Structure formats: C-alpha cells, structure tokens
Amino acid sequence: MTSNHEASGSSMASDDEIAAMVTGKDGLRMLLQPQVDLLTGRIVSAEALARWQHSRLGIIMPGEFIPAVNRLGLDKILFERVSLRVIDMLLTLRRAGIAVPVAINAPASTLSDERSVDFLLGRIHAAELPASLVRVELTEDQPIRELDVLRASLLKLENAGCEVSLDDFGTGHASLKLLSAIPLSEVKIDQYFVTRMRRSAVAFEVLRTAAELANRLGRRVVAEGVENMADIPALRAAGCRYGQGFALGRPMPLDELMMRLRTQRDRGDALAAPAPYASPWLDVYEDVKQDAGLPRRARHVTTQ
What is the CATH number for 23? Predict the structure, then answer.
C-alpha cells in the first residue's frame, strides 16, 4: 500500500464509471514506488500502485475507489488487470537488463480465491519470469473470514516461488495472529508509527518492538511512510533494514524507475547515502523516553 499522502480528486464517480475503469475502458494508471535498503541506500524492489485518471475528476486514489470496487464485486477482475500490467512492467525491465521484484496489493478476499492465485501463477509461467520477481502484498483493510483458505492460497504462491508481504503491520486486522499463521517473507510496519516516532517515544517503542518480533521470526522488515531522511538512523537502530516513502522515492512511472535503476546498476550510485547508527535524534528520543517514565535501552542495537 502506498505510503505518505498524495492529492486526489473527488470520488464522486458512478458505478458504471468504476466498472469501466476496472474492465479496461477508462483511466487505470500504474505507478511504482521504490523500496530502499536503509543500510546501502540502494533500490531493492518496488510496489505497484494504482491510480485512476478520471476524465472529469482528475486523479482518484485507491482509498477512494477500492471500497466501491469491492462493493461491486470487481476486486478479482482488478487484481487480474493489475497483475497483467505488473508482468508487462517486469518484462520491460528484463529487456533493459534489470531484475527487481515488484509487489502487487490484494486483500484477503482476492487471495483466498484459488482462481486469482492460479491466474497470477499462470501468467508468470507464460511470461517465463522467475516467480521470485512477483511479490504479493496482503492488505489488511478487510477482516479475514477463512484463515485456513487464505493460508492454503499463500502457501501455493510461496511454493511456486513468490514472496508474500504483510502490509500495514500494527494497525490492520489480527496482525499478530497473521504473523504466526501465514507464510510471510516480509512485514511492512504501518506509517502511523513511522511518522509519529519523532515526537512520540511510545510510537518509537512500538515500532522497535514490532521490528524486533518480525526480525526474530526471520521476516524482512520495511518501514512505510518514510518522510524524512533524518529518520533513517533511528529506523535502522529500531531494526528496520528497508524503507519506503516519499523521502526515498515517490510513486513514479516505469520509465523514471528504470532510469534510476540503470544509474544504480551502471554507476553504483545509491539513492540515499548510508547513515550512521549514532544520531542526535536518538539522544533526544532517550530523553523523551525517560521523561515518559520508560526504561532507557542499550544504545547499540543491531539490524538484520
């Protein structure tokens, strides 16, 4: 799921317009937001994000049209269309000699449907792409009604070589239960904690504890909503090896991401310079934490 905030148009679109967009007749755009290694500053993957370019209302964000898509029962059709677009993007990257995983967002209701999983795996096979280049990101905007069915679908994806990521960890439906119940390669800590950690010792402690738990379970840990480069040392010290957010890269067209990846490949340039663990902000954090009556922790915390 996208991090940070973007301006959007009103969502006063009709059901017919929404159906036309989903079925390919009007305005669906796909952007890619890079995910960055906070130790090296290099782009390591990307997340595919949908935007609706409405002829009358302008850009409409997923948070405005996805509920209507789900209400109309079009979520699986949208998943298939996005999957095809992502596979086309991966093929374009491959022709340029670039291979980075791209994540596709989907709710539990879609991923619990075996037909959706089979559709994705079939298209990956037909394109002769390594399944490891397709990452499926489970969004937590819906309650999970049949956990066993979802687990079976995700295991099928994992066994085929796809990675599974858990989005918005810490704020969604039954996050802790999911962390122990489904196959996961990656946990994305919700931007709620990332954007508040600078002014809240409690938010930082929750973020650090969530990252530590995910690291102990062998999951890759991503901080969502990174808005300030100055926060990188604290995120690293908290155990977040990877980050995503406007400070690291806004959602962008494929051509722009390709240009940045070519530069990274050919020149070895990093998107962001690695930052040291020590940071004046961590000193401030410790002072705030002590004022809040929380115990001080050891300063030297390793990341995965």
Answer: 3.20.20.450
